[in-house]
UniProtKB/TrEMBL annotation:
<keyword id="KW-0547">Nucleotide-binding</keyword>
<dbReference type="InterPro" id="IPR010016">
    <property type="entry name" value="PxpB"/>
</dbReference>
<protein>
    <submittedName>
        <fullName>Allophanate hydrolase subunit 1</fullName>
    </submittedName>
</protein>
<dbReference type="GO" id="GO:0005524">
    <property type="term" value="F:ATP binding"/>
</dbReference>
<feature type="domain" description="Carboxyltransferase">
    <location>
        <begin position="14"/>
        <end position="236"/>
    </location>
</feature>
<dbReference type="GO" id="GO:0016787">
    <property type="term" value="F:hydrolase activity"/>
</dbReference>
<dbReference type="InterPro" id="IPR029000">
    <property type="entry name" value="Cyclophilin-like_dom_sf"/>
</dbReference>
<keyword id="KW-0378">Hydrolase</keyword>
<dbReference type="Pfam" id="PF02682">
    <property type="entry name" value="CT_C_D"/>
</dbReference>
<keyword id="KW-0067">ATP-binding</keyword>
<dbReference type="InterPro" id="IPR003833">
    <property type="entry name" value="CT_C_D"/>
</dbReference>
Amino acid sequence: MPATTIGRTELTDVRYEHGGDDHVFVELAEEMSFDANFRAMAITQQIRERDLDGVNEICPANASYLIQFDPETLRPDALIEELRDLEESVELTEYRWDTRVVEIPVLYEDPWTEEALMDFRERHQDPDSTDLEYSARINGYESVAAFIEAHAGQPHMVTMMGFVPGLPFAFQMVPRDRQIEVPKYVAPRTHTPSRAIGYGGAFTAIYPVPGAGGYQLFGRTPVEVLDVKQELPGFEDSLVFLNPGDIIKFRQIDREEYDAIRERVEAGTYEYTYEQTEFVPGEFFERPYEYNDELVEALE
């Protein structure tokens, strides 16, 4: 019987490492889990709230985080002592944070990513299938349609940003036995269209710009996640739209709606659909499906 709660993961071997004179890297776990990622976000949020003199940049990741600081202002051993104190004081079941639920429209099986993936079949595990057909089969789905429904049916949390500016890595908010898992290509492609929806391991990624890539390609969104000129609505405060802790709800659209949204994006009139909310890890751990429904209802 599929799990109806999120299994907790005990984190026992937190590792603190120096990165040169001005970085501290903290590995909370070697393996991705909701506990590891939520703890990384909770601790880095607390560091921001403490506003330590000398801390220049805070970067949460899937199961770790990185702090860049000025060693002439903040001693490395004093920073690590502060981080150890936070590690002991943060209790996830009592923690909560403000975030956004963001709708990302997706044209699955779109012609642009289909062309790209077919150009590189010799680099794929299954040259005779599309990426969606392969991913559906190895995850036990009877059809591509059922697989797309599973991918779009439950929200995904942005667990880190990286690789290139604006690229979110998102982990689907379901129990481990319902997680979609796929390998990356045997050898990476040299081309991936911008705004492609890719999947590797247990993470969805949105490619902000065209380039090389090895994730399985599922579709393409008409909306931007990176605007270096900050001219589009939604990018007034940052050149990237998504941030760690944001919750993505992918919505399947058809070609007609894709073209209509894309036209509005290019005209600078598209407004993202999102709502501010409060995320409560304890409620998510206890009743993930009901809690996910409550989160995405805010978009309706």
